[in-house]
């Protein structure tokens, strides 16, 4: 057992040739805690903030349980003070030239370098993680992140023209956060000119140390503030005036699922067991252990899982030189888990690996993609072709081919599905903290009146209302689903009035069932569209553009009936045509290759479609907004369900007639009806993979709330109309960014 | 060397199927060196153990009986007696695993060891060392002569022309290189060789020995090699029958480290006897 090193003599060890303890002294960590008399505070505006009368939470050594220090539990006023400091600092920080921010980040990187031993011993002491992991990977990478983002800041004016920093960023750390994950978020935020308030789970002093190091640089206090408090203070942080974005930082790596092809199952399992038996666990501050411990809670979680799996008939293999007392838990390999058992669905806790066999690569892909998580995956194969195919097919943010766990500041990491849709590192990470210049800032006030249970629940009834003075020929009637016009499930219609209040046309009243059908059709069309080469996508968009051009008189007159001057209507049609062509052209150039130091071989930065994208179009610019959003979505390989303008859906339905003949069935589905109701159906649909909403502030709020169900990425306008006729807002890079997600595919090479 | 590779049917598919993931091997090599450090008593014990794996070697053109004799004496008494006493291992009969010389010096070595009253085996490099580009007939004759002179272990340079054309030979031990190449014993190469040894053992039950040679000069290096064997093949390979380190200057660095461990001081050049 690695922990029970009784005093051994050289003579004994000469015979047994065993490993011994390699204790890393944590005296400096304790000395640092002593500088605060073991009573830490918040770190706000470059100073320690130690308010009176706060509950204090102990910071413990997770292995010995020893009380190392105490941290105050924040109250709302502490959060407000931190946000105020960040807001004041932002005024100055955001206005600085990028070069000055670059200089600051470089100095902070140097500061970390100077105090690295303190950082790594403190982090290992309080988290129980193996010191070699923190020392050899986290701290050097944290420095690289700062340096790399210094470069990004330096070139900001040039490469990010047209974007501005959002403002104050709130960062909520989960109780099992890792220091490094926090750095992936802080660095880009500071680099682009945002300031940060971090909500640190009580008892985690490392972020406080980082803030102190930053504070001691002297200049710009208040750009990085730390508040100790539980995640339940998150809503208070989010509602502070000035907080523009709240991001969440999840856990360090958990357990793993391993899919092994049947033909190599025995051989792989044998090697795996062999290697596991050689792993060493113990106190994190021992320099010769592979794995530390993560506290009693993590131990109990792992134990419960393993016992549950065992009771369901799974095989459990445990090995390695690990102390047999809590909180230490041996590396565990679980196999033969029945497919229907609850453990198969549950998240695998650290340090457990669940192995299951598969027959074909196709099956493996289906299993791997059949989970709600989408963070990262590695593919191990001796056949490069097959490995690449799997790498492209996996719905995750990062794929390593024949490698695992590689990270680099210039390679974006992120995820999809429930692993979240934000990006860190690389240029992708910067946009998380930027907004297009001129877009309004987020107001913190959420409407209290919005009833999530009833928003858009009922559909207003529509009765016949006067003579129909429709266009000639009559506008198409029905919902455009699966490539053809269909009668709505509710078999009722809504009337569309022209600008004079006359009845222009009846359109179909879509409902929940129609949305379901449309989403299904879009899913069916997705595989065909994704695999179509960009060139083919481009030519279809161009064909649609030509069709629109031919339809110009009808479209212009429909717009005219809604009060648009004929000249403006013609411009709108012409711009719509241009948008389709422009996005068609951009379909060609997506993704690129990154070359990363320390790694031979490329990292492919792929831009992949979001999947089934639902778009609720704005009322303004009924044709142009529809065409602009549609074009961007299709060019990036998405299939779409669209709700056209509520007041003027006729032009969109006209275009559907061309799409029926030109596009594959189900690629584009257009559902008319009550916008709030359709928005509700889309937002609550778990199989809609992304949602763009342009409508009211209340609708936006509802969309954000309801989409949390499957954490689909959303884009909402919070009731602010966009200038669709302007290049920046109507066809700018923001649309392209929103229309696809990034995947990093690591291809280490060597023979 | 007692264990013998009794051989097996040559199945070239074993070799043709081998795939090496180079980046992963490099990573593993780095990890073992960083994560398997030993300190204090453990370090001293491991270093002493390392001594027992050394093939104390001299392979110079100007080797004579006098320096071979000195080498043999050092092989018999690798660490100063008072240091061993301080560590309470003076009764372990600590010697190096073998002495290794050119064929022409085998006689000298055997004589010197006999005079010192030692049973340490004499190993000889042979077969046109280090290039191996001589005729099969002379190569075989060279081995025969070395054995006649009293060598009990022969480091054979395989015919690399045959290897590169896919015609392999079998052996009891495999060695990273002659030690005379520009690149010799490196960790990544060793990992690949050790995995091959493990696969062969799993398939046939035969244990093949491993000898890294060339460039292993520091005590720290030798510790890393021991952990590499321990990690990749396990403790059962940590015996002179299955593991050797070919080295000439390594021993003196180990002795210096032991001196430091015992006395707390760094040794002066003249504190330790030369080999």
UniProtKB/TrEMBL annotation, chain A:
**Signal peptide positions on this chain:** none
Q: Which residues form the Aldehyde dehydrogenase domain?
A: 48-253, 257-435, 493-717
Q: Which Gene3D superfamilies match?
A: Aldehyde Dehydrogenase, Chain A, domain 1, Aldehyde Dehydrogenase, Chain A, domain 2
Its Gene Ontology molecular function terms? Answer: oxidoreductase activity, acting on the aldehyde or oxo group of donors, NAD or NADP as acceptor
Can you tell me which family this protein belongs to? Belongs to the aldehyde dehydrogenase family.
Its assembly, as annotated, is:
Interacts with SPG21.
> PANTHER family under this entry?
ALDEHYDE DEHYDROGENASE-RELATED (PTHR11699)
Q: What is this protein called?
A: Aldehyde dehydrogenase family 16 member A1
UniProtKB/TrEMBL annotation, chain B:
Keywords from the named record: Lyase, Schiff base
What is the main EC category here? lyase
* Pfam families (alphabetical): DeoC (PF01791)
Query: What pathway or pathways are given for this protein in its record?
Result: Carbohydrate degradation; 2-deoxy-D-ribose 1-phosphate degradation; D-glyceraldehyde 3-phosphate and acetaldehyde from 2-deoxy-alpha-D-ribose 1-phosphate: step 2/2
Q: What InterPro entries does this protein's entry cite?
A: Aldolase_TIM (IPR013785), DeoC (IPR011343), DeoC/FbaB/LacD_aldolase (IPR002915)
The active site consists of: 175 (schiff-base intermediate with acetaldehyde), 211 (proton donor/acceptor)
Gene Ontology cellular-component annotations: cytoplasm
Q: Name one GO biological process term.
A: carbohydrate catabolic process
Reaction(s) catalysed (UniProt annotation): 2-deoxy-D-ribose 5-phosphate = D-glyceraldehyde 3-phosphate + acetaldehyde
EC number of this enzyme: 4.1.2.4
> Which SUPFAM superfamilies does UniProt cross-reference here?
Aldolase
Please, which domain of life does this record's source organism belong to?
Eukaryota
Query: Coiled-coil segments, which residues?
Result: none
GO MF terms, alphabetically ordered: deoxyribose-phosphate aldolase activity
Family as reported in the entry's similarity comment: Belongs to the DeoC/FbaB aldolase family. DeoC type 2 subfamily.
The name this protein goes by in its record: deoxyribose-phosphate aldolase
Organism whose genome encodes this protein: Panthera leo
Its gene? DERA
């Amino acid at each position: 057992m690695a922990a029970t090193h009784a005093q051994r003599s050289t003579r004994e060890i000469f015979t047994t040739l065993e490993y011994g303890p390699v204790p890393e002294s944590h005296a400096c960590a304790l000395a640092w805690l002593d500088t605060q008399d073991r009573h830490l505070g918040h770190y706000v505006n470059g100073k320690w903030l130690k308010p009176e009368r706060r509950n204090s939470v102990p910071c413990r050594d997770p292995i010995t349980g020893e009380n190392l220090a105490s941290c105050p539990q924040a109250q709302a006023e502490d959060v407000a003070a931190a946000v105020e400091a960040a807001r004041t600092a932002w005024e100055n920080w955001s206005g600085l030239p990028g070069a000055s921010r670059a200089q600051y980040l470089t100095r902070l990187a140097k500061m970390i370098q100077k105090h690295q031993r303190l950082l790594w011993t403190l982090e290992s002491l309080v988290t129980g993680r193996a010191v070699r992991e923190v020392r050899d990977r986290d701290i050097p990478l944290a420095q690289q992140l700062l340096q790399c983002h210094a470069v990004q800041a330096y070139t900001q004016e040039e490469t990010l023209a047209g974007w501005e920093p959002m403002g104050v960023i709130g960062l909520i750390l989960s109780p099992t956060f890792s220091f490094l994950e926090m750095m992936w978020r802080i660095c880009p935020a500071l680099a682009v000119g945002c300031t940060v308030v971090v909500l640190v789970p009580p008892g985690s002093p490392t972020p406080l140390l980082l803030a102190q190091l930053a504070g001691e640089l002297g200049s710009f206090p208040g750009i990085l503030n730390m508040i100790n408090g539980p995640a339940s203070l998150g809503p208070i942080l989010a509602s502070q005036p000035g907080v523009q974005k709240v991001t969440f930082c999840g856990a360090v790596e958990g357990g793993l699922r391993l899919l092994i092809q049947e033909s190599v199952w025995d051989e792989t399992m044998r090697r795996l067991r062999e290697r596991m038996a050689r792993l060493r666990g113990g106190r994190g501050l021992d320099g010769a252990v592979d794995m530390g411990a993560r506290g009693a809670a993590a131990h109990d979680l792992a134990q419960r899982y393993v016992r549950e799996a065992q009771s369901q008939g799974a095989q459990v293999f445990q090995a390695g030189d690990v102390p047999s007392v809590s909180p230490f838990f041996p590396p565990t390999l679980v196999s033969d888990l029945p497919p229907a058992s609850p453990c198969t669905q549950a998240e695998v806790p650290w340090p457990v690996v669940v192995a299951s066999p598969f027959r074909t690569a196709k099956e493996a892909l289906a299993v791997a993609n059949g989970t709600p998580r989408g963070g990262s995956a590695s593919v191990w194969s001796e056949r490069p072709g097959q490995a690449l195919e799997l790498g492209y097919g996996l719905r995750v943010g990062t794929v390593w081919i024949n490698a695992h766990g590689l990270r680099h500041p210039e390679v974006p990491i992120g995820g999809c599905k429930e692993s979240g849709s934000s990006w860190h590192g690389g240029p992708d990470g910067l946009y998380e903290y930027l907004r297009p210049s001129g877009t309004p800032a987020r107001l913190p006030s959420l409407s209290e009146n919005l009833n999530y249970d009833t928003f858009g629940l009922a559909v207003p009834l529509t009765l016949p209302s006067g003579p129909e003075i429709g266009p000639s020929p009559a506008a198409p009637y029905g919902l455009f689903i699966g490539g053809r016009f269909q009668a709505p499930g509710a078999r009722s219609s809504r009337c569309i009035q022209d600008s004079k209040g006359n009845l222009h046309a009846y359109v179909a009243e879509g409902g929940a069932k129609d949305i379901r059908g449309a989403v299904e059709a879009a899913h069916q069309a997705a595989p065909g569209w994704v695999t179509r080469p960009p060139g083919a996508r481009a030519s279809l968009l161009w064909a649609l553009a030509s069709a629109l051009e031919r339809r110009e008189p009808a479209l212009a007159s429909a717009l005219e009936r809604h009060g648009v001057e004929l000249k403006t209507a013609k411009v709108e049609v012409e711009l719509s045509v241009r948008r389709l062509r422009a996005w068609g052209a951009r379909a060609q150039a997506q993704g690129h290759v990154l070359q990363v130091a320390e790694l031979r071989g490329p990292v492919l930065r792929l831009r992949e479609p979001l999947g089934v994208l639902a778009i609720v179009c704005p009322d303004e610019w009924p044709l142009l907004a529809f065409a602009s959003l549609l074009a961007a979505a299709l060019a990036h390989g998405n299939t779409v369900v669209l709700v056209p303008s509520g007041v003027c859906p006729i032009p969109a339905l006209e275009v559907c007639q061309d799409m029926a003949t030109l596009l594959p069935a189900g690629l584009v589905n257009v559902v008319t009806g009550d916008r709030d109701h359709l928005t509700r159906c889309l937002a609550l649909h778990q199989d809609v993979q992304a949602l763009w909403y342009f409508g009211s502030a209340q609708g936006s709020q509802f969309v954000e709330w309801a989409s949390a169900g499957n954490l689909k990425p959303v884009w909402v306008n919070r009731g602010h109309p966009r200038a669709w006729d302007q290049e920046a807002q109507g066809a700018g890079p923001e649309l392209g960014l929103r229309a696809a997600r990034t995947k990093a595919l690591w291809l280490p090479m060597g023979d | 060397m007692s264990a013998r590779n009794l051989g097996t049917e040559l199945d070239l598919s074993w070799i043709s199927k081998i795939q090496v993931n180079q980046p992963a091997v490099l990573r593993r090599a780095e990890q073992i060196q960083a994560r398997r450090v030993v300190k204090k008593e453990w370090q001293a014990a491991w270093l002493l153990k390392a001594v027992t794996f050394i093939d104390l070697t001299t392979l110079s053109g100007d080797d004579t009986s006098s320096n071979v004799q000195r080498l043999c004496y050092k092989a018999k008494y690798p660490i100063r007696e008072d240091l061993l006493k301080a560590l309470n291992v003076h009764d372990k009969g600590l010697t190096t695993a073998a002495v290794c010389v050119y064929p022409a010096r085998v006689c000298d070595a055997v004589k010197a060891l006999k005079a010192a009253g030692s049973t340490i085996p004499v190993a000889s490099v042979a077969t046109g060392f280090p290039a191996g580009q001589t005729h099969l007939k002379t190569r075989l004759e060279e081995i025969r002569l070395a054995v006649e002179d009293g060598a009990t272990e022969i480091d054979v340079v395989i015919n690399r022309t045959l290897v590169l054309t896919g015609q392999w030979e079998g052996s009891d031990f495999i060695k990273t290189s002659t030690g005379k190449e520009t690149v010799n014993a490196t960790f990544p190469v060793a990992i690949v060789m050790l995995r091959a040894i493990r696969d062969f053992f799993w398939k046939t039950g035969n244990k093949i020995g491993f000898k890294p040679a060339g460039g292993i000069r520091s005590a720290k290096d030798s510790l890393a090699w021991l952990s590499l064997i321990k990690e990749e093949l396990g403790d059962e390979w940590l015996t002179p029958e299955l593991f050797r380190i070919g080295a000439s200057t390594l021993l003196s660095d180990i002795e210096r480290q032991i001196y430091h461990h015992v006395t707390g001081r760094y040794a002066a050049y003249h504190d330790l006897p030369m080999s």
